[in-house]
Amino acid sequence: MALDFQLVIDCADPHTLADWWADTLGWEAEGTDEDFIRRMIKEGFASDDDTVVHKGKLHWKTGAAINHPDGRESGRPRILFQLVPEPKTIKNRLHIDLRPVADDPEKQIADLVARGATEIGRGEEGPYTKWAVLTDPEGNEFCVPTR
Predict the structure, then answer these.
(1) Are the beta carbons of 57 and 34 closer than 8 angstroms?
(2) CATH of 90-147, one of 3.40.50.1100, 3.10.180.10, 3.30.70.260, 3.30.930.10
(3) Which residues, including other chains, have CB under 8 Å from residue 103's CB and lie 6 or more apart?
(4) Which helix (H) or strand (E) element contains residue 107?
(5) What is the pLDDT of residues 46-73, one digit of tens each?
């Protein structure tokens, strides 16, 4: 049996990081159901401490997700950004590889850095495959092909 999955990224600020990755990938941040959140608080299932206001809207504090613009029907996994108390301290064992979307990968890398990414290295395999290793604003690694 084939299973569906979502990618979960631990972070300190789920909503801000979800926005950064949505902008990076051209994806969309999931909306919020403020009425449901308020009802859960009113009925005692949650408290105001479980929420955060992000971009003027009430959200659950513990997570934010992004989806491909074609939605779940696209077959692409949902990416969930999950609040964790501890900071990132070691190299990721899993990372995202971006596919080339620009004719000028160095400009794409410069644009990512201007938006808050940090370039931490370069790699290559054989004469044709080269990439840049970057981190998102919270230090999660990802790669961008350069050739």
Answers:
(1) yes
(2) 3.10.180.10
(3) none
(4) helix 105-114
(5) 999 999 999 999 999 999 999 999 987 8
